[in-house]
Design goal:
The protein is α/β, with parallel strands linked by helices. It has a single domain (about 5-175), classed as Flavodoxin domain (Rossmann fold). It is about 40% helix and about 20% strand. The chain has eight helices and eight strands; from the N terminus they run βαβαααβαβαββββαα. Strands 1, 2, 3, 4, 5 and 6 form a six-stranded parallel sheet that branches. Strands 7-8 form a two-stranded antiparallel ribbon. β4 (about 105-115), α6 and β5 (about 135-140) form a beta-alpha-beta unit. The protein is globular, with a radius of gyration of 16 Å. The chain starts with a strand and ends with a helix.
Length: about 190
């Protein structure tokens, strides 16, 4: 193990969820390649206090634990379902509870899912500027997946798998010493 921690957060409540499936898939590939320990969460894991919290201190213990995991991670995978061209409000509320300094310079893989190609630019027009405000390092390759990229809530598209491989490879700029033999085998 590399000692680095990866946390994935899917901005969805639905289970099963294509967004959560995508975040988990990316997390697994990055963890295998770099030896990260990893956890993935969705909004359901934060529980009901998320919607009632005006401030982070208002979160219950379960939600605070997840937020603490997010801000202590060495690398994040952010995934959002796309609704009417943007991320859901409760996902944004979660991000609003994080102090901008807590994500500063953190490498972030941004991903999103949607019903079709109309939403593909959401990663560039919504997620990248959001995490730019936090001065995080969003990796150059963003991953968008539509319904056709999944079979039974699992990544099934070769094009999507290749794009995931590209962004996972981009993490080597931050973690070059982690598991080089595995990286060469991919």
């Amino acid at each position: 193990m590399s000692g680095f921690k990866l946390v994935g957060i899917a901005g969805s409540f639905n289970r099963p969820s294509k967004t959560l499936a995508l975040v988990r898939h990316v997390a697994e590939r990055a963890s295998v390649r770099y030896g990260f320990s990893s956890k993935t969460y969705d909004l359901h894991d934060l529980g009901p206090s998320l919607g009632r919290a005006l401030w982070r201190k208002d979160l219950d213990e379960q939600a605070r634990r997840v937020v603490d995991e997010i801000v202590r991670a060495d690398v994040l995978i952010i995934g959002s379902p796309t609704y009417k061209g943007s991320y859901p409000g409760l996902f944004k509320h979660l991000i609003d509870l994080i102090d901008p300094q807590e994500l500063r310079a953190k490498p972030i893989i941004i991903t999103a899912t949607g019903g079709g190609d109309r939403h593909a630019l959401m990663v560039e027009h919504q997620l990248r500027p959001l995490f730019g405000f936090f001065m995080a390092h969003t990796l150059p390759t963003a991953v968008y997946a539509s319904d056709r990229d999944f079979a039974d809530y699992a990544v099934s598209s070769d094009a999507l798998s290749n794009r995931i491989g590209e962004v996972v490879g981009e993490l080597s700029a931050f973690f070059p010493e982690a598991r080089p033999a595995v990286a060469a085998a991919e």
